[in-house]
Protein: Phenylacetate-coenzyme A ligase
Organism: Calidithermus roseus
Amino acid sequence: MPIFQPELETLPRPKLKALQDERLREQVAYVYERVPFYKQALDERGLKPGDIRGLEDIHKLPFTRKKDLRDTYPFGLFAVPRHELARIHASSGTTGKPTVVGYTKGDLEIFAEVVARSLAAAGAQPGMMLHNAYGYGLFTGGLGLHGGAEKLGMIVVPVSGGMTERQVMLIQDFKPEVICCTPSYAQTLAEEFKKRGVSPEEISLKYAVLGAEPWTEAIRKSVDEGLGVKSTNIYGLSEIIGPGVSNEDVSERDGLSYIWEDHFYPEVVHPETGEPLPEGEVGVLVLTTLTKKAMPVLRYWTGDLTYITREPGASGRTHARMAQIKGRTDDMLIVRGVNVYPTQIEAVLTQIPEVAPHYQIVLRRERTMDEVELKLEVAEPFFREVGAQMLSDEIIEADHRLSALRDKVAHKIKDNIGVSVKVTLLSPGSAPRSEGGKLKRVADLRNLG
């Protein structure tokens, strides 16, 4: 596939490092002069900007965490006065004050550039139509993908999230080649097409750019088959810039996404100690913005668990690649002393063909013991084969094979993860579905306060 900016995306590693060194030095000096938070943090460590000569010194810098954004709400980490801003975005703020991020006009140019790179890597080309089902508004997804698509020369349909019937109608009528949305919403759309008797071959879509929530190869397979597309992962977060920090190449699709390292320098560190980890070892992704001016961040602790490799991919790009997110440190569930990530459970389910990749984890606590219930859909072919009957959404075990399946799932999860679960089998289509936003896989009903 064509590379959007080959002169930068295939830059030889020594030249890329020299560029990163220069930009890091400039960024540290910039925030020291303009952001009191960083001046204080560096002073407390006895550091001056001149002490940071390049990437070999980046470990000396302090981490920036989401709490720091909330503590300096709304504009305490901004490096420019308000009249130099071009746009403000913010998180949903479901657990309190939102995290606020800002952009200069130059930042928005960079935002569009990295998203255009990502879309090109995903298979998009100038002249193609993008069905943009990411939410518009304070969330960075909708406007971020919109700007990058226009930069690439695409036609953008700004549908936003939700209203699934209208989404399906527009895809059928407008015939876009590319769609972007959350992986769970892509599954929802695929199911809706199937209900209407529309086969994947009849859908115009060729490529799907999916992100904003962790997903697995099983979900990729279901989206690819359900929509007739090749799906790739796009990664980003608003504190860094938004979507477009990295993207898979559609010709590779090996679970590794190119990080646009000339703008965002990646590290992986130990979740507890913060010490840098060797290449290939899973830890917390930490990102430093090298070119952003409105709200630059040093060593932002993303909370996302992944690993990085600098082994070159087949596309010819030279930038580092990150693995699919394994989970988040704040998504980790501690169940009877065992650390559990929802993606671990999903990985086990991919090994069981009788079930579908639609589930919900429900946590309860009776007295002092945690109980885990896995509500899990049975795959349609198996559901029809056993002739199951239903009471509401829950399956009545009219066939011994259902009881055997429930035991099989429970045993596999126990063997692979070390946690006992109660498995409740659901009929096809009855587990929670995405309506355009992020899908909540876990219902934690424990009172842990």
